[in-house]
Predict the 3D structure of the following.
Amino acid sequence: MKSKEIRELTLEEMAAKVNELKEKHFTLRFQKSIGQLENDRLLGAAKRDIARINTIMREVELKN
């Protein structure tokens, strides 16, 4: 996700997206452990998206 797309979301939508990405990250980690994951880069991308959303959420909280 791009930061511009994230900034258009409300805090509730951001929190929901973080939960969704955490579930996705867990699934990817599980797939990697059993050898089904073909693209390891998806793990890093999910972690970066989670961090990006958390950073923008914090920025919004500090503005208010």
Q: What stands out?
A: The chain has a mean pLDDT of 95. Residues 3-63 form a domain with the Helix Hairpins fold (CATH 1.10.287.310).
